[in-house]
Amino acid sequence: MSILARIKQLASAYADDTIAVRRHIHANPELSYQEYETAAYVAEQLRQIGLDPVEGVAETGVTAMIEGKNPGSKTVALRADMDALPIVEANDIPYKSKNEGVMHACGHDVHTSSLLGVARILNEIKNDFEGSVKLVFQPGEEKNPGGASLMIKDGVLENPKPASMVGQHVMPFIPTGKIGFREGMYMASADEVYLTVKGKGGHAALPDKVIDPILIASHIVVALQQVVSRNADPKTPTVLSFGSIQGGSATNIIPEEVKLKGTFRALNEEWRFEAHKRIRKMAESIAEGMGGSCEVNISVGYPFLENDPGTTRAARKAAEAYIGSENIVDLSLWMGAEDFAYYSHVVPSCFYRLGTGNEEKGTTRGVHTPLFNIDEDAMELSIGLMAWIAVSQLA
Q: Does residue 86 contact residue 102 with C-beta atoms inside 8 Å?
């Protein structure tokens, strides 16, 4: 039996167990950097299949090595993220979140359980491939500074340094049974923008006696769109959006201050930080010109994610051999962000999409929503394909 056929056989055999693991993790979600129980569960699962996990990497991260023949010849790293989101789950399912206000609404339960399934497959066939596979179970993908950056600082990409790194992410907009790839630039950097506009409060019927921070904030929000429409290179995708404006308490009271929260996305690091300067200068100048002030705090988040062409091409070729070229989807640029990007700036990396959408099963709702869920039929492909990609990368 070929190694590809063996992997497919094992993926089928372990699919139900992987789904059970996924449901356990889904029912017990933990927020970013608080994944203590999840990490302990992952470590115990690894020990049960005969691996020796390293716990406490970046506090709640877990790693493990699977060594094939000639283990020092080459290493490939596989990554899964473990954290959940502060969302109240609205799904009516037996494995609904037991932690009120916390939900695996981004599929990290799928990623983690899948990598455990991959570990079972690879550990069983380790005498059939050369090299080593490093398993990386990472905390804090959903929150700055990003668990990937902390894992890297803690040495996850050293001793040994992987020749390549692979990660996957669920995609409800791709049908189950299909996989998405994109070479080169794929996902945007993401920075959080916090503005505090300060004025002078008072009675709304006496506008000449106040400095209105709501009016100032309104001008700032509109003016800052020029950063995208008139400062950014039109050929470089850029997004600046404000998702929160907070200030005031009544119709007839002008408040002392207004707080704004937004996000800035870009696909060019030089422009990214130039835009930060423009945002700061414009907001401060507008507020000062209108008699108030504006404090600008930009929390620098994840860099852009770039898929190494050679690594991605090889992974795509492996996927074509596994499921056929007709089931491969070409991905477009995505202005969402992922802290897997940190790895892509250190080692040649491939981040691909696992289709989990099924209209009949109602699994086409977007991530980060209370009704997000997956078609669990995707789990067999998830574990088998990643195991096959890892073996192919080693070869």
A: yes
